[in-house]
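Here is my example:
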Amino acid sequence: MVEDEREFSRGCAGLKPHPLRFEINNELHARPFEQLVAPLSGTMYAMFHEEHGQKEEYRHICNLCDRYGLHPPGENTNHFSADFGSFRLRWERHAEFTSYTFFRATHGKEPFAESACSEVPKDWLSSLPGVLLTAVKIELLDRSQEKPTEQDLDRYFVSDSLVSSIIGGEAAQLWTDLRIDRDGYNRTLVHNHDMPPRKAGRVVLRIFEIAVYRNLALLALPLAWDVSRKVALINSELADLTGKLSHEGSPSEEAELLLNLTRVSADIESLSAKSAYRFSATRAYYPIILSRISELKEIQVNPYQTIAEFLDRRLAPAVRTCNSASDRLADLSRRATRSANLLRTKTDFVLSEQNQEQLASMNKRAQRQLRLQETVEGLSIAAISYYLVSLVGYAAEAGNTVGLSLNVDLVKGISIPVILFSVWMTLRRFKKRLYRDT
């Protein structure tokens, strides 16, 4: 195996490696399966952790390693497995939970008589970070041990809910009731027929994963019920508001309608933001459950149901309920958006009509002002011409005073058309220059 970039360069003709090549290749080999030899007992705790609880979990694992003198895992490690003498621990950190799985040889003792973590320090175990989501006990019986009788199964499980199947290509038989017993655990009993240690490790891990991912997928169910109830209320209110869109209303009524539609849209978006992650998680976990069940390769044992049949009847409707609530919420959001857009379009249309009326009114006022201006302009020409003719008359009278002998009235009459034309031409040129500058 290539362990560093220098060896890679020598082995691959000096080609420059992608910075993530080793990381993504090693991910394929992360979280190896345990090799389990029957008879043994396994106990798994899935702790639902907070977003920033990684450091606390790491310190907790280091604390246990220090007690037993073992080398702790790296700080950024997501998987750790070690033998602590009286028990073996498998620790895995996932996106929403961290699992602590303990294995311990039972030496043929009565199934479920003793927990796999009975030798784990009680103070350390009781202070696991996070909140308990799933606790599972598995008893793996050796082929030399007798198959449990009906009386045994009645003592270990609730008979009404008991499921059983042949798994692993007829390599083992499984029994479980998928209930929580009085000690707080889901119980599973596996009788090994012909499973080597590696295969036993894979089967046991798959059973643990089914239990954990089943609960993770169902976390959205109470939320789906709450969302469905709220969606029904919002849907009724939205229908009433949408019905008002077809009615003519005053501007204040239109404004109030838009305000209510905006509030409804905000309520929908808030509800969607609170539920989107949980619903998307359910959609992601459900295929994982189906995949893990498929890997068990179950064969039905009459008269019992298989795990696949039981979960298909109970889990599948719950997942469909979550998906339905998510879809209804998304559809409600789209409808609210369309209603708000319709109201805005209606408002814009009304504003457009009002603007057209205002523009028409302004156009009429402009025409009146133009006519008034032309009238004033004509009066201005007359007034200016009158004063200029008067000035010409004064000039003629002044000429008579100095002996020119002019007919004042004749001079005024002759100057009138000349002055009118001159004033009109002057004002016209002024208007042309004014319009040209603007």
User: Anything to note?
Assistant: Strands lie at 40-48, 79-83, 88-93, 97-105, 131-141, 163-167, 172-180, 186-192, 299-300. The CA atoms of residues 11 and 430 lie 91 Å apart. The mean pLDDT is 86.
